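Thread: "does anyone have the structure for this chain?"

Original post by V.I.:
We have the sequence but no experimental structure in hand. Need at least a predicted one for the grant figures.
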Amino acid sequence: MNKLQTKSYLEAVTRFGNISNAAKHLYVSQPYLSKVIKELENEVGVELINRESNPLTLTYAGERYLAYLDEMEMIQQKMEYELQEIANLEKGRLKIGVNPFLASHTLYNILPEFINSYPGIEIELIEDNANQIEVLLANQKMDISLTILPIGNDQITYETLYSEALYLAIPRSHELAHNNPTETNQLPFSIHQLNNENFILLKGNMTLRTITDKFFNDFNIVPKPVMETINIDNALYLTNAGIGLTIVPKSVKNKATHENIQYFKLDETHYKNNVVIAYNKNRDISKAASVFLNLAKMRFKEHI
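Reply from O.Q.:
Generated one for you, tokens below.
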């Protein structure tokens, strides 16, 4: 029998002082009510009703049992209320994985609107490199991730947010910067002139570094690494200071305000930044994650 229904039976017995009146109040027969209470006492292994008293009262065990049922009822009501809040996105938690580049150059386009629309949803950001984010997502340690293709784990699926071109950033003091920049897929100078040039590179565990290395390997270019960093903005600052060349996505280029950099577009058919929202295909996506995903797709739909 439902424990909360049992609670109403015990309360009726203590209120009316006898089984007969309690049964009438509950619209059940007297034998049925007596049987239910006896079965309950057998189940818990102790008498709950003091049958020697007139009117009937609860034993100490009965009082404690009823007190616990009161607590259970309050907990159930609280649970139902909280689950309803979660269902209505009034409360909840969303774990988002993101790499440092996307945290500063893409996530800011989505997160403020989501937070303002759903202030009761707690956002937990897990910032790490793309490889580690992929591992955590596969192990269901987060709800979704904002990441860059390729993704190597077959447990993970994704939806595209946008694709963007990559640009070679060259200090204006460099002789290659004297060429006229173009938005075509052809650099206005021989790619092999980049051989042995100073480059500020992202660290090897970052996806953009993987794309950069592919560009170098495709043309047998051997760069001279001046520094490796996890922060793409640092790379641009150093390029602006004339320390070396670097490669950045269009979104970074468009936000930058450096005056001493000339940008040259790479061949977009082979080298581009594919930004996606990924999630574990073996796990149902939460309502909060689904809303975040749809908001992100709406925000970037003109880029797809």
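V.I.: this helps a lot. The chain has a mean pLDDT of 89.
O.Q.: and The domain at 95-156+276-302 is CATH 3.40.190.10 (D-Maltodextrin-Binding Protein; domain 2).
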